[in-house]
Write a sequence for this structure.
């Protein structure tokens, strides 16, 4: 239970970046936001972390690289807390691509709705809890969003019929989505899984890495959307000792 007392020590963090690099990144994002026409957001990003009378003020916007990094760390802690308490966890990649570049918002709704329905299916009955995060990734042709989630699901000792679940998910997403069990052994560690599923560039790509048009669609499509997914109550008590089973696709860096 060590991680409960000192949660941050269980998460590997990247080394702190130089202040000038951070300032350059914030400025580049502010310019992108001005190009979109979001001048208020741009101003808040530009002045984020400026020293105030008592402490540095953060803008707390999802589009801000600095604040998104803090959010990512918070998500990682939340996912670690959940996934490390599962008795028999398994990591899956669950996809639900959008039908167009302007349809990200609708893809989020479809994903959430389909997941609620999947949880009621007989083939999913032995899954007692789940935790993970949604990730909107621009498709390679730039025409749609490859919306997907990395999820740890707790099987609680039961064998899952992954073919039946994959079939149910495909039907619930009108033939677009896929349910794939992850093969990457590195994701067996709850810490690795938490970092992998909560990475910042999922919803706040580095400045100058995406066209301004796509960025506008990304920010508009994720506005007000909850990215973390969790349901049910994990039961395990020996959290950090419990590895996560692996078996799908490993298309992201760790
Ligand atoms: Zn900020």
């Amino acid at each position: 239970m060590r991680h409960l007392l000192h949660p941050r020590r269980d998460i590997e963090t990247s080394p702190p970046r130089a202040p000038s690099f951070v300032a350059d990144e914030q400025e580049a994002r502010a310019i992108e936001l001005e190009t979109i026409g979001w001048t208020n957001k741009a101003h808040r990003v530009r002045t984020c972390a400026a020293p105030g009378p008592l402490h540095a003020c953060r803008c707390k916007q999802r589009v801000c690289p600095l604040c998104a990094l803090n959010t990512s760390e918070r998500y990682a802690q939340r996912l670690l807390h959940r996934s490390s308490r599962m008795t028999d966890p398994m990591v899956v990649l669950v996809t639900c691509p959008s039908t167009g570049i302007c349809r990200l918002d609708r893809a989020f709704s479809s994903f959430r709705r389909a997941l609620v329905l999947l949880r009621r299916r007989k083939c999913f009955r032995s899954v007692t809890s789940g935790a993970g995060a949604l990730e909107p990734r621009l498709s390679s042709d730039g025409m749609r969003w490859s919306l997907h989630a990395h999820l740890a699901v707790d099987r609680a000792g039961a064998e899952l019929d992954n073919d039946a679940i994959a079939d149910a998910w495909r039907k619930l997403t009108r033939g677009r989505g896929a349910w794939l069990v992850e093969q990457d052994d590195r994701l067996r560690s709850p810490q690795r899984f938490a970092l992998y599923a909560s990475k910042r560039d999922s919803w706040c790509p580095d400045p100058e890495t995406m066209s301004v048009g796509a960025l506008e669609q990304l920010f508009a499509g994720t506005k007000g959307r909850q990215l973390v997914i969790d349901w049910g109550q994990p039961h395990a008590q020996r959290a950090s000792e419990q590895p996560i089973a692996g078996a799908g696709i490993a298309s992201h860096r760790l």
Summary: The longest strand covers residues 129-138.
